Amino acid sequence: MMANDPEIFMQTPLAIWVRTFYDDDGKPLDFKQLCDGVFLHNVWLQIDSQPTFTGLTNPATDLTARLRNLNNLVHNIKAFYEEVLEQVLVMHLPNIITIAKAVYDENSEQELGRLLLLMLGCAVQCSAKGRFIEAIRRLDLATQAELAQYIASLTDNPEAVWTRDWGQLDALPEPDRPRLYAALVQHVTALTKQRDAAAQR
């Protein structure tokens, strides 16, 4: 459900989580700071101190600079899932153009939420996950429960992330095989439609 304004969005579980990285200097973290890629870049460096794609424009006062920052961030997230976690992102990547416009609406809320979700998934699976999980445990119980659901929507959902183990039939528990097979067929069907649509352009 869409929040009514940026301030309400900043009280959602994903925004509360990312605020645990914020060094409060008396000025609260706001929606636009999440859209320029600068703060989120610094968050990412705590998750992955040696990112594949480097470079940061700070301050990112124009659309081009924000796009550059967010593009590097999304590429780093994708590389981390594939190269470190050995997982393939199946879900749509965040639309960085929508985020970089820094205009609050339903679309920017959805895309920024998707970006924060992917970062959360990396944080709780990286080598420093103990520190990040401990920070989550210091949040209120309702927020913890909602974040746990977000995490499960990635780690236990073949429509979002496909793990290496799911590619090995013999390693799969028998009850999970029909569900994962159905998800695989769905992915192949979607890719075929995308290929055909691209061929008509």
Automatic annotation (TrEMBL):
Gene3D superfamilies: Calponin-like domain. It is found in: Cytoplasm. The keyword Cytoplasm applies. One of its GO terms (biological process) is cytoskeleton-dependent intracellular transport. Residues 16-147 form the HOOK N-terminal domain. One of its GO terms (cellular component) is cytoplasm. CDD domains: HkD_HkRP (cd22223). It comes from the Eukaryota. Keywords: Coiled coil, Cytoplasm. Pfam families: HOOK_N. One of its GO terms (molecular function) is microtubule binding. This is Girdin.
